[in-house]
Amino acid sequence: MLKQDVAQAVIAEALKTGGDFAEIFLEDRLNHDMMMLSGKVESVNSRRLHGAGVRVFNGFQGVYVYTNDTSKEGLLACAKRAASAIKAQSGYTAKPLMWQETPNIHFIKEMPDTVKSARKVEKLKAADAKLKEYQEVVQARVGYTDSVQRVWIANSEGLFTTDTRVYSRFMVGAIASNGTENQTGSFAPGAMQGFEIFDTRIDPEAVAKQAADQAVTMLHAPMCPGGVMPVVIDNGFGGVVFHEACGHSLEATAVAPGNSEFAGKLGQKIAADCVTAIDDGTMANEWGSENIDDEGTPTTRLVLIENGILKNYMIDKLNARRMNMPVTGSGRRQGYMFAPTSRMRNTFIAPGNDDNEEIIASMGDGLYAKSMGGGSVEPSTGKFNFSVSEGYLVKDGKIVHPVRGASLIGRGSEILLKIDRVGKDMQMGQGMCGSQSGSVPTNVGQPMIRVSSMTVGGR
Q1: How far are the Cα atoms of 168, 243, 390, 393, 445 from residue 359, in angstroms, in the given order?
Q2: C-alpha span between 149 and 111 (Å, rounded)
Q3: Are 375 and 366 in contact (CB under 8 A)?
Q4: pLDDT of residue 170
């Protein structure tokens, strides 16, 4: 843990060379994971991550130094090293630290680090047994991971607070084969919950079924035809398209230096009237939620786009200075080895008013993307390319048959304006998002949406 008097001394040391803001972030994390491959437990691992980082600002300049020596002497040495990179004319006197209680909105019933491994293995076995029902599934990987992260945050503005984050996730990957080629399917639900996640959110057999069904379906699917056509993207993990193609361009990391296609467009129309997009860290027990961000700012519900109008960016402390705008509780980091920056939390397109059946029935000929895979995006231009892990060809408003090898190609700002239908049922999918401050848990979500015209890569 971090003692208040030690934190005060470390902050004072960090400000000695003229910095105008200093912060210390201390982390103690326990990770547990296990993996079963084709019915056999391959690995069971436990790890502890422990260390701290000291950050100093001087105007728009930020310096970050970290250490795993969290003794008073080690932290002071870390602060001195951070301060040595700052050469300012006048110093800043830190305010006395005041304890700030962090209200907990994420109730945990059963801490995962108290659960015996045998109970966790039972969940793996249940999923593996389900996978064995599929003759074409030739290899199956089932995994479980949990994490308990405790953090202490103090800064020169007088903040001294702590928080505990608990995560649990279950993962199934299936490979189906016909002897000449393979296709994969996967599903990995998770939440900011303890082991009670298996009572409330995760059925191991259902997770296995979803992964296996996807692999087998794609094994028998012909190649997707390419071209420009209407595309319906299903709810849940379909939200990865908005997350990657648009969400990253609304983070201050890209906006502050002008490396975003949406920089300078607050108050302007950037999406269709039916599009409202939200980044919400206040959703109880959701995978991307928090009580406070990694700068100690209380988490928020942030409307990014409202009825097509750009309302907000996601902003951390350093970029708040650069943009002359307030922080939004969006400062996140993988751990103590990373300085925080603006990141998404639970990012989704809000529910609309359209019926799913009508969305497909009125689209004519096109592609129904039931599940999305990986992809890439360039925030400065918004250009993206995403694979479709499970897709279906639509003819005259009717789903005809599955297709594989499809990809979605476009530009975020153009796609937002071409969304002409938004369904009523919003769901979320869990993932890990990588950026400058490492990999963090994020939710992506949306109802079923339709893009009136989109480039589909295929054969």
Answers
A1: 35, 22, 18, 14, 18
A2: 12
A3: no
A4: 98
Question: Alpha carbon 280 to chain centroid distance?
Answer: 11
| Listed residue (414, 421, 417, 373) closest to 397, CA to CA | 421
* 100: number of Cβ within 10 Å: 15
Tokens of 195: 């082991």
Helix ranges (H only) for 155-290 are 197-200, 204-219, 240-242, 252-255
Tokens read off for 261 = 């296609």
The pLDDT assigned to 374 comes to 77
Q: List the one residue out of 297, 322, 327, 338 whose CA is nearest residue 64.
A: 338
Token pair belonging to 344: 């998404």
pLDDT digits (tens, 9 = 90+) for 408-453: 999 988 999 999 999 999 999 999 999 999 999 999 999 999 999 9
In sequence order, which residues have a C-beta less than 8 Å from that of residue 69 and are 6 or more positions away?
Answer: 75, 77, 78
List 159's β-bridge partners, or say none.
98
Cα(448)–Cα(341) distance, integer angstroms: 31
HSE at residue 209, side-chain half, CA atoms within 13 A, is: 5
Structure tokens at 453: 């015209």
The answer to whether the CB of 318 falls within 8 A of the CB of 60 is: yes
Q: Is 15 exposed, middle or buried (0-12, 13-18, 19+ CB in 10 A)?
A: buried
Of 248, 266, 299, 244, which Cα lies nearest the Cα of 105? 299
What are the C-alpha distances in Å from 153 to residues 13, 22, 109, 161, 432?
A: 16, 11, 25, 5, 23
Q: What is the pLDDT of residues 99-125, one digit of tens each?
A: 999 899 999 999 999 999 999 999 999
- SS3 for 110-123, per residue? CCHHHCCHHHHHHH
Contact 88, 19 (CB under 8 A): yes
Q: Are 294 and 151 in contact (CB under 8 A)?
A: yes
Is pLDDT at 189 greater than 90 in this prediction?
A: yes
Q: What is the largest CA-CA distance in the chain?
A: 73
Strand partners, 172: 142, 187
Contacts made by residues 101-106, CB under 8 angstroms, sequence distance 24+ = 101/161, 102/161, 102/162, 102/163, 102/291, 102/292, 102/298, 103/291, 104/164, 104/291, 105/282, 105/284, 105/289, 105/291, 106/165, 106/166, 106/192, 106/193, 106/284, 106/285, 106/289, 106/291
Q: Is the dihedral of CA 392, 397, 398, 400 positive or negative?
A: negative
**Burial class for 1, CB neighbours closer than 10 Å (0-12, 13-18, 19+):** exposed
Considering only CA atoms, which of 334, 295, 336 is closest in space to residue 315? 295
Q: Which residues 6+ apart lie within 8 Å of 216 measured at CB?
A: 134, 136, 137, 176, 183, 185
